[in-house]
Specification:
13 helices, mainly alpha
């Protein structure tokens, strides 16, 4: 089996729990889309073109309120602006021997969860890994949206509430393993949680949009961690070994 295939199947394996979480969350998204007047086809196509829960929920809310196209575009860009930071981080982790065009195709797979498992890899990132992960995760997202818009209105409220918890379990599954291996990572996670709570509770900070909150926290906390605990590059590791 070629190296690319090994990475692809590895990404598929790691993408299975993400797909399950996506299905649960996007089911709720489909219900919201249906309430906003979107058809099953429209809701499913939206999820296929934009794998972004916060951006899609924001867009659906604005559609339901009758907002203009320009307002929806600006809001969606702001909410999804965190992906610029994620893409910048991933571009530094991609293997240098891979053609540049892979970065364009990989951009479709930049979601919070796929970013998490990709950055958690100890090795340099092979593009096939993200292709494998998104090949499983994206269908789960689209299928959940379609079924949610088709069948969600008849499901019990308690079942829907239970499905919404799945996404948080998936985040824990991504964060806990690297935190157990590194005290630095664990500390950054705890500080991030405390800072995020502060932004949700303190006057003035909680008025900032969720998209900008993520950007501010990412720059401040990740930047401080990078300065205080820099990760050695391959060249530096080789120099130390020599």
């Amino acid at each position: 089996m070629s190296e690319a295939k090994r990475w692809f199947f590895r990404g598929m394996k790691d993408g299975v729990p993400i797909a399950m979480g996506y299905f649960a969350v996007s089911f709720t998204l489909g219900i919201s889309a249906r309430k906003a007047g979107m058809s099953v086809t429209q809701a499913s196509l939206m999820s296929a073109l934009m794998l972004a829960s916060a951006g899609q929920f924001a867009g659906i809310s604005m559609i339901a309120s009758g907002a203009g196209i320009l307002e929806m575009i600006i809001t969606t860009v702001v909410v999804n602006m965190r992906y610029l930071l994620m893409s910048s981080a991933l571009s530094q982790k991609v293997r240098r021997d891979k053609p540049f065009y892979h970065r364009f195709f990989m951009s479709y797979a930049v979601t919070d969860e796929i970013f998490g498992i990709s950055m958690a890899l100890e090795e340099r990132l092979h593009p096939a890994y993200m292709y494998g992960a998104v090949s499983v995760a994206a269908p789960g997202w689209v299928l959940g949206t379609g079924l949610g818009s088709l069948l969600g209105m008849i499901m019990p409220a308690r079942l829907m509430s239970a499905m919404n918890v799945a996404i948080y379990g998936m985040f824990l599954a991504i964060v806990i393993p690297p935190s157990r291996k590194s005290r630095i990572v664990a500390g950054v996670v705890v500080i991030s949680m405390a800072a995020s709570l502060a932004f949700q509770m303190l006057p003035g900070l909680k008025e900032i949009s969720s998209g900008f909150q993520i950007i501010i926290l990412t720059i401040l906390i990740a930047g401080a961690a990078a300065v205080l605990f820099p990760v050695q590059t391959e060249k530096e590791e080789n120099d130390h070994a020599a």
